[in-house]
């Protein structure tokens, strides 16, 4: 598979991120306003810098040959809702000391 078809398999936002990583080496400005075909043409001009990019597999996120990042464990947010009951009616409540 040639470089052009590998690049075309990725979304333009991901390609622009790769250019931004190499922008100092390539001395390029204004790539953020480029369209996908312009971005690919630029990357093909400097193909020795972008040859590491692999084709994107359908149904998976674009990784461009990078090592997969470890998924961080999501923090669970717990809070208590305190309600006061007077005579069978709920008169108010608070979450972590703040009234609702």
Structure, described:
It is a single chain. By secondary structure, the chain is α+β, with helices and mostly antiparallel strands. Strand 1 (81-86) and strand 2 (89-95) form a beta hairpin. The chain has a domain at 3-50. The N and C termini lie far apart (60 Å). It has helices spanning 3-8, 12-26, 36-45, 47-50, and strands spanning 81-86, 89-95, 98-99. Helix content is 35%, strand content 15%.
Shape descriptor reads elongated
Mean pLDDT: 75
Structural class: alpha+beta
Strand content: 15-25%
Along the chain, the helix and strand elements come as HHHHEEE
**Helix percentage:** 25-40%
SSE layout:
Elements: H1 3-8, H2 12-26, H3 36-45, H4 47-50, E1 81-86, E2 89-95, E3 98-99
Antiparallel strand pairs: 1-2, 2-3
Helix pairs in contact: 2-3
Q: Features of this protein?
A:
single chain, 100 residues, alpha+beta, three-stranded antiparallel sheet, 3 strands, elongated
Give a quick rundown of the structure:
With 100 residues, the protein is α+β, with helices and mostly antiparallel strands. The protein has helices spanning 3-8, 12-26, 36-45, 47-50; strands at 81-86, 89-95, 98-99.
């Amino acid at each position: 598979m040639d470089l052009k078809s590998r690049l075309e398999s990725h979304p333009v936002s991901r390609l622009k991120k790769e250019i931004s990583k190499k922008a100092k080496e390539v001395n390029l400005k204004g790539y953020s306003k480029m369209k996908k075909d312009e971005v690919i043409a630029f990357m093909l001009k400097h193909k020795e810098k972008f040859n590491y990019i692999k084709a994107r597999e359908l149904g998976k996120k674009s990784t461009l040959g990078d090592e997969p990042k470890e998924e961080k464990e999501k923090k669970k947010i717990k809070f208590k809702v305190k309600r006061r009951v007077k005579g069978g009616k709920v008169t108010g409540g608070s979450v972590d000391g703040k009234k609702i």
